[in-house]
Write a structure and sequence with these properties.
Order of helices and strands: HEHEEEHEHEEHEHHH
Number of strands: 8
Shape: globular
Strand content: 5-15%
Largest sheet: 4 strands, mixed
Structural class: alpha+beta
């Protein structure tokens, strides 16, 4: 979260207050939007991330077009929310039209099964696209190679979110009725794998709850960020790229509040001693260390 570890500095309290303020303002904006449209929010993100191309699309294109303009917001420079970005620009289109990747709506009861099948096909299509992108990286034998264009699941992260009681119940019911929704299999894969929960959450909520993507809100100013070099259990080769994406996200807010206060750095986050050491090593040497490498380095320096 935003905020430094307490070291007796009064500024620490201010940073923690800023974290709470971001949460409170996002919640208030979400509730205002809900009251204005009549569409309840069932999933709200207070922390999120994505590849840098995806973040650039969200910040420069999706958010400006879809962000909720609060009634008491006179200049558009205020913390708010925008609907979950379930679409991306079609690079092949000269007019840069947006193509819908996944936006199901609640159908009549007689068409529920048909709609569910279509939703599963859309999910499989997205998974296949992401699998192809990973295969390209492995083919070039360059682990950690960054994505070059926006696509797939545009944002993800299940480390700071709120879900309504109705949304949670619908999510559990949906997964209990269709266990296969937790699994996926790429074109070149021999067996199925379990989907990451941060991909399951928004897709299931969008599919099950009335309102579609409008019932999933994302804050313009995250209050929580991915820790530096947090070891991924499924894509550890991307850990350094995740750090680059986080740095871009901190330095380029969706909506600027005050030019001298909207941008953040690693120093503004509440990090552990090891995480601060990793950030400092990156500053001094230009290279990101894993936790394992940091531990080895400390052991080698210990007499």
């Amino acid at each position: 979260p935003i905020g430094r570890c307490c070291d007796g500095d009064d500024d620490d309290d201010d940073a923690i207050v800023d974290c709470a303020r971001r949460i409170y303002e996002a919640m208030e904006a979400s509730l205002e939007w809900q009251k204005e449209t009549g569409t309840p929010c069932h999933l709200r993100y207070y922390g999120w991330l994505g590849s840098k191309p995806n973040l650039e699309y969200v910040v420069r294109t999706h958010c400006p077009k879809t962000v909720y303009r609060r009634k008491n917001n006179t200049d558009g420079r205020e913390i708010s929310v925008f609907p979950f970005p379930a679409n991306c620009s079609d690079a092949a289109n000269d007019d840069n039209e947006e193509i819908l990747l996944d936006q199901p709506s609640l159908p009549p009861h007689s068409k529920v099964q048909q709609q569910e099948q279509q939703h599963q096909q859309q999910e499989q299509h997205i998974e296949n696209e992401e699998e192809e992108e990973r295969n390209k990286t492995h083919t070039k034998k360059q682990q950690g190679q960054p994505h070059e264009k926006a696509g797939g699941t545009l944002i993800w992260g299940a480390y700071a979110y709120w879900i309504s009681k109705e949304g949670h119940e619908a999510l559990l019911s949906s997964l209990q009725k269709d266990v296969g929704a937790l699994l996926w299999k790429g074109k070149r894969m021999r067996c199925h794998k379990v989907k990451p929960i941060d991909k399951v959450l928004p897709r299931r909520i969008i599919a099950e709850m009335e309102g579609g993507i409008d019932c999933v809100h994302v804050t313009t100013h995250p209050a929580f960020f991915r820790a530096p070099m947090l070891t991924s259990q499924i894509h550890s080769q991307w850990d350094a790229e995740f750090c680059k994406s986080t740095e871009y996200q901190m330095s380029t807010p969706c909506v600027e509040i005050e030019c001298d206060k909207s941008a953040l750095t690693w120093e503004d986050l509440w990090l552990s001693a090891n995480e601060r050491s990793i950030v400092q090593h990156k500053k001094d040497n230009g290279v990101w260390l894993t936790m394992g490498e940091l531990k080895t380095m400390h052991q080698s320096l210990t007499p």
